[in-house]
Design a protein that fits this description.
CATH class of the largest domain: Alpha Beta
Low-confidence stretches: none
Order of helices and strands: EHEHEHHEHHHHH
Distance between the termini: 53 Å
Oligomer: single chain
Number of strands: 4
Radius of gyration: 20 Å
CATH topology of the largest domain: Rossmann fold
CATH architecture of the largest domain: 3-Layer(aba) Sandwich
Largest sheet: 4 strands, parallel
Strand order of the largest sheet: 2-1-3-4
Number of helices: 9
CATH superfamily of the largest domain: Resolvase, N-terminal catalytic domain
């Protein structure tokens, strides 16, 4: 059994690596080492994701697909979630969600019975439905907020963080590496690259 950890963030502004240490600690708790990490910045509403596809293709029966939370694996509509789950199950992968103890049975029990498997599948489906509902609710509220702001003449679009841009430029001028800037300012490599392009075009 190999543990394959999947880490996802929705955009390049977010840090997909954020949960890596937490998942490593989770594996250590059960005396299992994570064999590989599959990391990408993709929306959970997309069925086709390169790193997730690679994880599934690399897997053998009884390998574990480890995620921090269910919404890291899916924010898909119900039908597409069933399609993704079918692909995962067809490879014989076992999905383990760090924050859902019911899915940890593969590390605790010598053999999972039909009741344990059914409960685990139920928890996965429930988590997938909740992740999608959360996504739809947040986007609905965001759209309502934008419409309200537009009606009141207050909507200006997404604001640029000029302070962060200047901080990044200062760090670049000091010869700092991308990794050092990420650690110091907590920004993504994509943000640094955009700042490099902006100031190189000036």
């Amino acid at each position: 059994m190999l543990i394959r950890a999947y880490l996802r963030a929705s955009t390049t502004e977010q840090d997909a690596l954020r949960a890596k240490e937490e998942l490593k600690a989770f594996g250590d708790k059960f005396n299992h080492r994570i064999a590989s990490y599959y990391i990408e910045n993709q929306s959970g509403t997309k069925l086709e994701r390169p790193e997730l596809n690679k994880l599934i293709e690399d897997s053998e029966p009884d390998d574990v697909l480890l995620i921090e939370k269910m919404d890291r694996l899916t924010r898909l509509p119900w039908g597409e979630w069933k399609t993704l789950k079918a692909r995962i199950m067809a490879k014989g992968l076992v999905i383990v969600v760090a924050d859902q103890p019911m899915t940890h049975a593969v590390f605790i029990l010598e053999e999972q019975n039909s009741i344990t498997l059914a409960l685990t599948e139920f928890m996965l489906d429930l988590g997938a439905a909740m992740a999608r509902d959360d996504y739809e609710t947040r986007h609905k509220r965001q759209a309502q907020g934008i419409e309200k702001a537009k009606a009141e003449g207050k909507y200006c679009g997404r604001r640029v963080n000029e302070v962060l841009r200047q901080d990044i430029r200062d760090q670049l001028m000091l010869g700092r590496s991308y990794s050092a800037i990420q650690d110091k300012l907590g920004c993504s490599r994509a943000t640094i690259a955009r700042v490099v392009k902006i100031f190189s075009d000036d």
